[in-house]
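Q: We require from you a single protein entry containing the residue sequence and its fold in token form, and nothing else.
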Amino acid sequence: MLKAFSALGYLSFFSPLIPISIGVFKFRSEGQGVKLIIYLLSFGFIIDLFTFWPVLGYKIIPLFSRLYVLVEFIMILFIFSLWQHSKRVQKIKWFLMGAFLLFWIAANLTFEPLKKPCIITDSVSAIILTLAAGYTLFMVFENSDRSLLKNYKFWILLSFIFNFAGTLLPIIFEGVLFRHSRELLYMAWSITWFLTITSNVLFTVGFLCPQTQT
């Protein structure tokens, strides 16, 4: 599996270590939302790391990867709710958390069992989180009292949009591309790797910006 990775793949794989390192170094001064993102990035990196261990990669990691999708969805929407002042929007996001939890359980018990790829669940999660990040970014833009370039929320939300919107198409069409064209599949994943690197760079910039307690 390691041999299948290109240089871009390796850069994408290790790129989360940059924002994680910065986040850990500044952990005491980070806001609650950023601290949760650091935990999330660390959890995701550990899962990716253990996929290279054959025993875990084939038996245990698929379960943790699915769990990560659920944890990621709930944590990110919770972070967005911390950055929203509208109680109505917060209620909607809490509703989405509960609805996605039920959908995740139903998917794993029925049409996307553990032995099959969870394309539908990943796609639904990516679509909702992209829209939520976009709306939250718009609200940050409307309510910001300083330059967006100095606002850590701007960089972090932009990172989420790059990550989820950019990887959505490869997730949806991965099965089709794998069956019909390995070259197109590799190209799709190259785009995903590039966007992952960009996303982690944006996280790093956001972590370096002055922050509030949320």
Notes: The chain has a mean pLDDT of 85.
